[in-house]
Amino acid sequence: MHLRTLPLIAAAFAGAVFAQQSQDPDYAKLVKEWTTRPEFMTPLVDHLPKAAGVPSPKDVLGYYVGAPKKLTHVADLLRYYRALAAASKRVKILPAGQTDEGREQAVVVIADEETIRNLDTYKGYLARLADPRGLSDDQAKQIIGQAKPIYMFTGGLHSAETGPPEMLMELAYRLTVDESPLFDQIRRNVIVMLTPAAEPDGRDRYVDWYYRHKINEETEEDRVAGPPYWGKYIFHDNNRDINYSQVTMRNWLKFYLEWHPPIMHDLHESVPFLYTFSGQAPQNPTLDPILYSELPWFSNFEMTKLMGYGLPGVWTHAYVDMWSPGYLDFMSSNHNGMIRMYETFGNGGANTMKRNVAAPEGGGPPGAGMTTREWYRPMPPYKEVVWSMRNNTNYMETGVLSALEMASGFSKTILQNFYDKSRNSVESGKSEAPFGYVLPAGQRDMTRVAFIVNILRLQGIEVGRATAEVKLKEGTFPAGSLIVKRNQPYGRLAKILLEKQNFPDQNLRTYDDTGWTMGLMSQAQVEEIADKAVLDVRVQPVDTLSITGSVKGDGSLLAVLDNGANSLITLRYRMKNVKFEAIEQPFKAGDTELPAGSFLVAASPEARTEIEKLGLQAVALSAPPNVPKHVVDLPRLAVYSSWGNTQDVGWVRYALDHFEVGYDLIYKERVHKGNLRDSYDVIVIPNQGRGSAKSIVFDVESKGKPLAYTKTPEYPSLGMYGESDDITGGMGLPGVVELDKFVKDGGLLITLGGSSYFPAEYGITQTVDAARPTPQFYAPGPIVEAEILKPTHPIFYGYTQKILPVRYANGPLLRLPEQDRKKWVLARFPGTDKSVLSGLMKGVAETRERPAIVDVPVGQGRVLLFATNPCYRWQNLGEFNMLANSILHFNDFPKPTASPAATAE
Ligand SMILES: [Zn+2]
Fold first, then answer.
1. In the chain, fewer beta carbons within 10 Å around the N or the C end?
2. What percentage of residues in the chain have a pLDDT greater than 70?
């Protein structure tokens, strides 16, 4: 049955007669043509209504959504939505800040005229349900009676997934103008919100790249790599930015906490043909059970509708789980709403081409193998298909319209559940331990405590400062300690972020990290409190926590304590023209213990101001301490990036930029020029290349024509963060030779995580082997112990414990010959069950006594290999100072007494 017959039925019900809405005949003809098989079309999208004075995407852009070889830049997306909003009282555009690169972020709102007129009233209802403290169930019922749920779509978070931002324009138009009963019901009962593009910077860069390099692709074999960058720093990890480091992602969170959409639905592209998320195991047990019934409730309705339309290849289950809270739209589940997600099949552009979907022998890429018939996939995707952008639009748009049909039919249930989940979160904090968390005042480094507190605040979690000493069963904590009580709307989220992650079943797999415990990641003290008395501790609310440093006493010389603050390196870089020394042994100045690594700098107003601003502690001395010390020179620093795997490099760039460390970002082009030692003292190779040294060396495959990443008037978003006339080919063996020379000529090469395969496998460190774990080993990002073996090495300045919590990086299993082990292994993994502190490591014994960090001399230089990754996303700031120290003290590593080969041991 075609929908266009429905208005007549509605008219009959209403007892009135209205004319059938006129339709766009060209649209109907063209989308039919672009849809590659008749069964890929549905009655929801095979026609497009016309409305006098209201522009369709075609009216503004000149092409229909889903047209072959058409992708839309951000400015044009916004231009369309503005035209739509200007023409209809059913549409409004809300500002949502500016991206990392300064593009506009906005949210488009669509509902009936009354709702749009009174949007702030509806916003107020949702805010009241989101924080139901002081509300009786009866009062809540009254609010629910008047409120409407916001259903918010995000599309284009992943820039290569090009369909959603196109589809959303057509959806917005349809929702605005279609007068049939279904649409009337949606507009009346639901407030639809959508992002033109969730990652606007990446959208523009990808669209530029598509028009430059991908628009002539005709077959799967023609397909070339995507652009080196999406967002300013990171790629698909914008969907893993658990601490909202990126400005763009932080803006969406702020928007969420202002509007409280009970549902956020993220539109991705990957597996065939349409997967709708239903929240499979492992499920985070702290989230409300109601959520886990809502997810399949929706996905099963969509399955039912889409199967009914005859769409093959629609499925749910057996793909993405509910463990990690770090995905962008998880912000809704984290705040008592509901995350929803689709994966629709896409071609990485708008070209129609034949795709092989069946799994090759032995597995294949993600998505392969999803063509089998299963109980949750009764009509599987075809093994081979000619796929088009319009197919993608048809599937996704029919899916989201079905979801909106469901949401508009059960809007009160959604609101009731939203209220129940919010209330349950408050109530569970009063009845279930832990009742709270204490971050004690007086920790050596309070800047990392502030980091945790400020992330919690960003997430909307209330944190208080104790007005007096706190006595609990867990201990006595000083006045000023930071208190997180669980009896608050986001108390469950606080628990999820701060607790140890107990992965429920070693045999389950998960899509992302299993461990993220903030106290361990930051190496700051966070006490879990089972004493209910914590709920009654008197506190003053904390808005943001800023730590002001201090300088004690008077004297010509300042000793800046190395208490492990990440801002110590910032101080050094802010005062880069001033002489700094570091003491190599602890020293007692009066009653202040100066740890090894503490800086000595001449007292000056500038130094005092910066120390205070950066939250550091210093004491004034009249004379330098009588212990060994060295000058803290700043190296000429380079960070090496391949063109094909810039994401983890991006996290290192982000951290270095954040802490104001100066560096050059270099690529194969600079390496090929040679003479690296003339330009640099230290080269860092961040984790990249998916754990393979070969992929670092040979990088992006060449398909015969150069792939230029350069800025031109036509492609202004390309050529940022580096330029290349051809990103393919990698550094190759000549590049390896240059890096080898750099080390032998006295440079320090630092490799992080998977990049540590590189010096081992290409023989730069001839005595270090790098093995891989067995296929039975499974360690999706747990936090494990590393034991420091050389505590006096400068990279451990500021660390006091012998055992550190480190994020396991899936890095190499390093091995050194017996006689070298004692000399060059700085830290190792105990590799016992109890050394897994949070999350899952299956097969932990494979890491037993394997080196975690190795510092090995090569020629005149050094190679520092981290099997860990001390700069993992924006999370493990407790580990970051090992990298910071290796930069600050690059030329003061302990001297090799003799080369190991020459030593008879
Ligand atoms: Zn995606």
1. N
2. 96
